[in-house]
């Protein structure tokens, strides 16, 4: 459990983002605030975890990229650190489907990179001075936030979107199952749920609709995942 803080102590922040210019720029901006101290930076999730174990930051500000499996594992490893740092997600993914899953994994804030620095600083401070984690900061437009409602018709879960993205990259059910460490039957069940939710009948129709509605982008479909599809980022 995190010790009770003296409000005069600087909040120790670790930044984890593979966009070097964004990360370094953010470090310079946050570091200019008297009560924020940047104790480390990393472009890679495992390096960030190692730094968190060494530096014991109060808050880790980290990005999320597709697919989600590696981000999930990074969050689980951060939670096993004693004392565990608070985590603020700072991402370009505007789709609200990710929020439920990451909140369940214990993040303190889900912030879009398009919000103001003041909003991010507020999220960092809110994470620290809400020691019981009773409040969560979500930084996204209201119309997006309204679509987060659990179980809403037509809203795909994070897992369903992850599977749909892999399908859009041309992977078979067996390949998707292998990359996510799930059974092929589970993949088929998820796809059936996807078809039902968005009103299509085939993989091709599902992918076309996802692209048309901008649930996924051409960049996400064609990106070359350096770690391999099965590893995620």
List the helices and strands and how they pair.
Blueprint: E1 11-16, H1 20-31, E2 36-42, H2 45-55, E3 59-62, H3 69-79, E4 86-91, H4 99-104, E5 109-112, H5 117-128, E6 137-139, H6 142-145, H7 158-168, H8 173-180, H9 184-198, H10 203-212, H11 218-222
Parallel strand pairs: 1-2, 1-3, 3-4, 4-5, 5-6
Helix pairs in contact: 2-3, 7-9, 7-10, 8-9
Describe this structure in words.
- The protein has 233 residues and is α/β, with parallel strands linked by helices.
- Helix 4 (99-104) links the parallel strand 4 and strand 5.
- The chain has helices at 20-31, 45-55, 69-79, 99-104, 117-128, 142-145, 158-168, 173-180, 184-198, 203-212, 218-222, and strands spanning 11-16, 36-42, 59-62, 86-91, 109-112, 137-139.
- Helix 7 packs across helix 9 (184-198), helix 7 packs across helix 10 and helix 8 packs across helix 9 (184-198).
Characterize this entry briefly.
By secondary structure, the chain is α/β, with parallel strands linked by helices. Helices cover 45% and strands 13% of the residues. β5 (109-112), α5 (117-128) and β6 (137-139) form a beta-alpha-beta unit.
Features:
233 residues, alpha/beta, Rossmann fold, Arc Repressor Mutant, subunit A, 2 domains, 6-stranded parallel β-sheet, 6 strands, 13% strand, elongated, disordered C terminus
Given helix and strand content, the structural type is: alpha/beta
Write down the Rg: 18 Å
CATH superfamily of the largest domain: Response regulator
Shape: elongated
Question: Mean pLDDT, as a whole number?
Answer: 79
Number of strands: 6
CATH architecture classification of the largest domain: 3-Layer(aba) Sandwich
Low-confidence segments: 147-153, 224-233
In spatial order, strands of the major sheet run: 2-1-3-4-5-6
Biggest β-sheet, characterized? 6 strands, parallel
**CATH level 3 topology of the largest domain:** Rossmann fold
Write the element-wise H/E pattern from the N-terminal end onward: EHEHEHEHEHEHHHHHH
Helix content: 40-55%
Text of the CATH class of the largest domain: Alpha Beta
In percent terms, what proportion of residues is strand?
A: 5-15%
* Straight-line N-to-C gap: 29 Å
- Domains counted in the coordinates: how many? 2
Tally of separate helices: 11
